[in-house]
Write a structure and sequence with these properties.
about 425 residues, alpha/beta, D-Maltodextrin-Binding Protein, domain 2, 2 domains, 4-stranded mixed beta sheet, two-stranded antiparallel sheet
């Protein structure tokens, strides 16, 4: 144990004292905060500041649509009403779009029976946000017009067509508690991203450390005093402690920020994010087991490689389960108890992220969490058993590409 502790201490202090640790600890959260902020603002401002025209033979319908679009503060649209229309109106509007005087126009045809056909012609084919806003405005105005045509007073029409805002609550332990679907999604997304990023980054760090010492032949000296398995265990513990330290720094900074006036102003709107102590504890458990699984996998792979470039070629294959579970974030958060959500949360390579997504959405039964952790721990033991034996032979192999039959022979040698 003394050798393991000394190697772990060396790996930990070497990385903690390095400039890379300080830079990544500060810049990574700042960088991703900027990325998420830009993404939020881009989504909020998408489809805004458009200049469009509404062309129809019914001026009253066009005015109602235009009023609703102008009332949308996020859209900030400039809306022209072209009504009534003539035979040349459409071609004139097309020419204005071509000359970039307009971003698009909405063409409405209404027949005697009251049927309305709408066509949006635009310069851009991917502006689905504007299309959605136009769709809502047209449907709202057409419904108002049809109700008025049936003799319903204007005040009653306003009451009938008034939108209803839905608030959400969640049942926990037989009680109703307030919830926020958007906040839950982002909390799950951020936690899953942190797991993904840290697991892959520190798993790769273990692999790189093995490659660097293998290529510099330091192993040949160290193996005269330390067992290979002790060396591997020390590396895993030391680099894993670096990851926990970085996560603890980020968590402390997040806790300090959450108590600031800026955080209060940001969370005063529709976004409300809450993280329970159970989620924090389980996050730590899944990080430790997930890190142990992927770091031992990368260590075993690194022992079979000659260069870092060769290791990086294997990294995408090892990361497939991580990105698979990450790609299912919307499905898992929306359907936390479905068969596929439960199945992927039990599959050890995907469990750290998939199960945590379920926990953030709806706390699963304790037996499912226990089974997931048990299967993950068992997979860690199996991968460690294989990787340690490949590691014991592979770190001393030079100039020979490792093949599957070759690695099977290494398992027999060790």
């Amino acid at each position: 144990m003394r050798e393991i502790w000394l190697i772990a201490k060396r790996e930990y202090l070497e990385q903690i004292r390095g400039k890379a640790f300080r830079i990544t600890t500060i810049l990574i959260p700042i960088t991703f905060a900027i990325i998420f902020g830009i993404s939020f603002l881009a989504g909020k401002n998408s489809g805004s500041n458009k200049h469009i025209a509404i062309a129809t033979a019914d001026p009253r319908l066009a005015d109602q649509i235009a009023d609703q679009l102008r009332a949308d503060k996020d859209a900030r649209m400039t809306v022209d009403v072209v009504a009534p229309v003539s035979a040349d109106t459409r071609q004139q509007l097309v020419s204005q779009i071509d000359q970039k005087h307009l971003d698009g126009f909405l063409w409405l045809d209404t027949d005697i029976a009251g049927k309305t056909d709408a066509l949006y012609v635009a310069r851009s084919s991917g502006d689905f946000v504007t299309e959605s806003r136009l769709n809502d405005a047209v449907n709202h105005a057409v419904i108002r017009q049809r109700l008025s045509a049936h003799g319903i007073p204007a005040g009653a029409v306003d009451a009938i067509t008034r939108n209803v805002k839905i608030s959400t609550e969640q049942v926990k332990n037989g009680k109703e508690v307030s919830s926020n679907a958007f906040g839950t999604f982002w909390a799950a997304y951020v936690m899953a991203f942190l797991l993904t990023f840290t697991l892959m980054m520190y798993g790769m760090n273990v692999g790189r450390a093995v490659i660097q010492e293998k290529t510099s032949r330091i192993f040949e000296v160290m193996l005269s005093a330390v067992k290979p398995t002790h060396m591997l265990a020390g590396k895993l513990i030391g680099i894993g402690a670096v990851g926990l330290t970085q996560l603890a720094i980020w968590a402390a900074a997040g806790a300090i920020f959450s108590g600031s006036a800026l955080a209060a102003s940001l969370m005063s709107g529709s976004i409300k994010i809450a993280v329970s102590w159970q989620e924090i504890v389980l996050f730590g458990l899944y990080f430790l087991l997930g890190y142990a699984l992927y770091s031992t996998l990368f260590a075993g792979l690194a022992a079979t490689c000659e260069t870092e470039q060769e290791l990086q070629q294997y990294a995408p294959l090892a990361a497939v389960p991580v990105w698979l579970s990450f790609s299912m974030i919307a499905f898992i958060v929306s359907n936390p108890n479905s068969f596929w959500s439960v199945a992927i949360s039990m599959f050890p390579p995907c469990a750290p992220i998939a199960m945590f997504l379920r926990i953030a959405s709806q706390f699963p039964p304790l037996w499912q969490i226990a089974l997931s952790l048990a299967l993950l721990a068992l997979s860690v033991y199996i991968v460690t058993w294989f990787s340690s034996r490949i590691y014991r032979v592979g770190i001393l192999m030079y100039g020979k590409r490792a093949t599957v039959p070759e690695m099977l022979r290494w398992l027999r040698y060790s």
